[in-house]
């Protein structure tokens, strides 16, 4: 786009203000962001996977801390995935109304399955829980299923 000569002093003033705001942004984009995108296409930090709580020794505080930090990151990721699935279903419902019951059924099923899995892993743990309480919940669920069958199917009668 060719440069157009400003017609009056007001236009010159607004062009100079725009240049003051735009020039640093363009410089950062061209000199910092784009060169780094070629070799490193993501900006979020990638954490290495650490041993889970069942692989830690009982007196290894550092291993407990790392496992707890990884658990909290995984919980945040799972919660955000659930939130995205919910938003997709709500958008589909608004867009496809009044036929949304049949057109959005696959999204609803996917959301329900993710919600169930989230609750199995993180539900009923309370506000202040950590990786150890989640591990104990998993252990107790496995013991229950070994004794009584899958949760929700009723107790086995012998």
TrEMBL record:
Keywords: Electron transport, Membrane, Mitochondrion, Mitochondrion inner membrane, Respiratory chain, Transport. Its main location: mitochondrion. It is a peripheral membrane protein. The keyword Mitochondrion applies. One of its GO terms (cellular component) is respiratory chain complex I. Pfam families: NDUFB10. It is found in: Mitochondrion inner membrane. Coiled coil: none annotated. Signal peptide: none annotated. It comes from the Eukaryota. Belongs to the complex I NDUFB10 subunit family. This is NADH dehydrogenase [ubiquinone] 1 beta subcomplex subunit 10. It comes from Tribolium castaneum. The lineage of its organism: Eukaryota, Metazoa, Ecdysozoa, Arthropoda, Hexapoda. The gene is AUGUSTUS-3.0.2_06357.
């Amino acid at each position: 786009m060719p440069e157009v000569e400003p017609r009056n002093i007001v236009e010159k003033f607004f062009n100079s203000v725009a240049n003051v705001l735009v020039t640093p942004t363009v410089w950062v984009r061209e000199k910092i962001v784009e060169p780094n995108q070629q070799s490193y296409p993501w900006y979020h930090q990638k954490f290495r996977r650490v041993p889970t709580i069942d692989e830690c020794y009982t007196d290894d505080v550092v291993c407990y801390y790392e496992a707890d930090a990884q658990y909290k990151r995984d919980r945040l990721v799972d919660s955000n995935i659930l939130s995205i699935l919910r938003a997709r279903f709500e958008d589909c419902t608004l867009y496809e109304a009044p036929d949304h019951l049949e057109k959005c059924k696959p999204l609803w099923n996917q959301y329900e399955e993710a919600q169930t899995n989230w609750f199995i892993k993180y539900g009923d743990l309370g506000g202040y829980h950590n990786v150890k309480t989640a591990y104990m919940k998993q252990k107790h669920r496995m013991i229950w299923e070994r004794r009584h069958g899958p949760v929700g199917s009723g107790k086995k009668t012998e």
